[in-house]
Amino acid sequence: RIMKRLIITLAALTLVAGLVFTAAAEDYTFTGVKKCGMCHKKPEAGEQLRIWSESSHATAYATLANEQSLAIAKEKGIGNPQEADECLKCHVTGHGAGELAAKILPENGVGCESCHGAGSGYFKKATMTGLFAGEIEAASVGMTVIDEKTCTACHNEESPTFKGFEYEERLKEILHTVPTGE
After folding, report:
1. How far, in Å, CA of 47 to CA of 44, rounded?
2. pLDDT of residue 123
3. Which of 120, 126, 127, 143 has fewest C-beta within 10 Å?
4. What's the whole-model pTM score?
């Protein structure tokens, strides 16, 4: 009974103070493309997995082994670009996240969670339903709200193949919305 009152009091204080407690990004782990694709593959759900798999994001890691990438790496004094942090940070989901990214396969390149955030807090259907219904705030479960900064974290002058980045145009190329009602 005392514990129940304490919990109610803390909840009331939290509301009055306007405090919102959310977990830090480090509290979430990456689940991988396969887990995301379980629900995001059907036409009636928007075929996000297909759209991603046909994009250059899906082959971002593989491109590091092509002739152009190997030549750029050699010019910059980088050994194998598929092993170099300066390349992998943008070509592999969760690179540098250590154990948080244990389920990530480098060959999946730039997967869902590179843009949307590590999925362990939001991959369940009930959570996704709550997110789309506006009942759950994205940040409270580790989901990143996509904006231009999300993209330009990698698509910028630091990339040796950068030729400018038009956010609105490029967004249309990878857009994978969820149909109304899903």
Report:
1. 7
2. 96
3. 126
4. 0.81
